[in-house]
Every structure is written in C-alpha cells, then in structure tokens.
Amino acid sequence: MSATFIVSMIALSIALLIVLTVKIKLHPFFALTISAFFFGITAGHSIPEIITAYSNGLGGTISGIGVVIAIGTVMGSLLEHSGAAETMANTILKITGKKNADIGLAVTGYFVSIPVFCDSAFVLLSPLAKRMSKDSGNSMVTMAVALAMGLHATHMLVPPTPGPLAVAGILGSNLGLVILFGMLVSIPVTIVAVIAGRILGKKYYYLPKIESTEEVMTEIGDKKLPTPFMSFSPILLPIILMLLRTIAMLDSAPFGKGVLYNILDALGQTIIALFIGLIIAFFTYKSVHSEDKEVWTFDGIFGEALKTAGQIVLIVGAGGAFATVLRLSNLQDIVMNVFAGFSIGIIVPYIIGAIFRTAIGSGTVGMITAASMLLPLLDVLGFNSPMGLVIAMLACAAGGFMVFHGNDDFFWVTVSTSDMKPEIAYKVFPLISIFQSIVALICVYILKIIFL
Q: Hey, where are the domains in the chain?
C-alpha cells in the first residue's frame, strides 16, 4: 500500500480514538482496542497478525508497568488513609505557598524523572499531587500537568533515561555535555508547561476525588498525623535506591562490581524499590491505625486499591497494544524515503522525531529513528564537533516531545491516576506537549547559533 494511504489510516485511527473517548465517552480500554483493530484491518493486515501484535503489545506493556501500578496504587492509598499525603502536601506548601504548589510538583518531576521512568514516577507521586490540589484549591489539571510535564521534560532530554541515552550513543555525543545541556533545555521546557497548566487548569477546573482533610482527621481521631520523615520515606527511599542503581551501572563503575554493586543492582530494581516503599507506607499507616486488622485483606485498603489498579493496568496495556499495532506499518521506511537527501540542519531530525512520536506514541522510537537518519549527515550539516553532536542529539529529542496523546501509555497512566476525564486530557496534554516541543526547538536553535 502507498505511503499516503498508510499515513491516512494512522491519522484516521487516532481520530477514531479521540471520537470514541471524547464524544461517545466509551471506556478507554475498548476505545483503544477498537482503534487498534481499525488501523490493522484498514492497513491490510490479517486478523491473526493484528491479534498477535495486540496481544504482544498488551502483555509487554502490562509486564513492564502493571506491577508498578499495582504497588503504587496500594501505596498511594495507604499514604492517603494514614494522613501521610496530607503531611507531605503541607510540608511542600509551607515552602512554595499555596499559590506556587504546582511549581513544587514540577521541580519534583524535573529531578525525579532523571533516574526514574515517568510512568513509575507519576504513579508514585500522584497521591501527593491529589492531596496538594485538594489542600491548595488549585485545579487538579494544573497539578497533573505540572507533575507529568515536569517528568516529561527530563525524560526526553536527560540521560540516563533510555531515549536520550540511546541517541547520545548513536551519534557519539559526549554524555556529560548531553546531561548538562539537556538539563538546561529542560528548564524552559518545564516552565512553559507550568504556565500553560495554570491557564488550562482554570479553564478545566476540578478537584480530585479524595477524602477531605476533615474526614481524614475524623478517621485519625486524637492521633497525630505521621511525621514528615515517615510520610516522605515511602516515596524518597525508592527514588534514592533507583538513582543509586543508575549510578552504579555507569561505565565508570563508581561502586565497583562487587558486593555493593550487586546489592544496589537488586534493591534499585523498580519493583523491589517500590515494594520497599510499600512496606514503609504500610508501617506508617499502622502507626496511625493500629486497630485496623483488615487493611491487607480483599475488603480492606489493599483489596480496594487493587480494584482501581486493575482498571488502570488494562487501560495502560491497551495503549501499549494500540501503539504496537500501529508499528505493523512500514512507517519508518516511508519517513526515511521522504526525507532522504534532505539537509536542512536541525529541522529534519526534529520533524522525524515529531512524526514518530505523534504516529506511534513513542518519543524514544522517534528520537532514535531521527538519530539513525542524521548519523550519516553529521559532517555535511556541520554537527561533527563535540558541541555539534550534543545539539544534534537535542534536536532529535525536541521533535520527540510532540504530540503526546492517546497512543502513549504514559498518557493513560496520567489520566487514570489523576481522575482526569479523557476529554479534558485530550484538550490539555497534546497542546502542552506541542508547546514543550517548540520551546525545546527554540533552545536548540539558540545553542546552535552560540556554539556552531
């Protein structure tokens, strides 16, 4: 089939997904499934081929994030019912003030996403975002955008996140320079998200569905809320363990390759680190509610939280399945043929990254494909200096920011765990990802003018 037809079918399948979720309000799991099969059939793939791709995508996504969502959801519920989320929110609000609570979340996301995948990080931090929204009165849209897009910024630009790390490796960019300039470019990229989040938060205002402070205090009675140390530990300790594992795995092997390395490698695995956080959250809850003997049962907090987690896991898995079915097309060959022979600086890798992110929901695939095409053109385009290689890498990543929507499993993690309606999410996240992408491109262009 022709390239134009394939691209048209991708566009139609994405449009169908939007109509089903926004207009018809069909449950996202079924909307994603229908859209995936629509593309597969119209693009000429056989039903068995589509089912195989869908199943592999669903299973692969769930195997990667399912347990994380389950543990994170239970932990978040424990933090909420113990009053720990309230303690954390109050602590951050004392520093930022209620007016700037979203900035506190954006800064948190900016740093956390460097060692931790955004999916895991958002699941981990969403209870805090909900509590801060409730306590500050700021729209949950504003808080979710600040956290998600703060995570998004460094996830796309700063190694050791796999995408930028892979692109730096393909192009031979100096990793230290990539980290330094990636973090610098991430600052305005995060700022524009915070500003846009505030504007859109007022337009689509809602508060999360959690217990009010009064209800929590009634539940706790005369007992005090958990201390800041006990409240933050379930979140901070897993992040620290994952960061230490990331550092331990660097080529320089700062912790060696012996016993300490093996310990950090084991404890820093995402599931293990989060499970440790869950255990701490459990003891934090029991320190407040020692009388609750049902907390770990099917009808207790564990069971109720897992009922919610199950639905989230299926939605996120269907998002991964949709993206996998889209990858059945020969989109990569189409794009490479279209741009073969083009040599217009940073625009080509930027456009390629944007096409793949928008079409198949993977910024990582987008930036890696762009880097692969850019590699033989580095000398011709003048990117063969150490700083030129960094700028080339950042250009690939800038395109990978757009457009963030329903074929990305992180989109559904964000929507599901922040109680946001899909129709609101579609009006917010794609637009802000475009802003982030354009700001990133402008920053890369300025760096090009300064250093090349």
A: 3-451
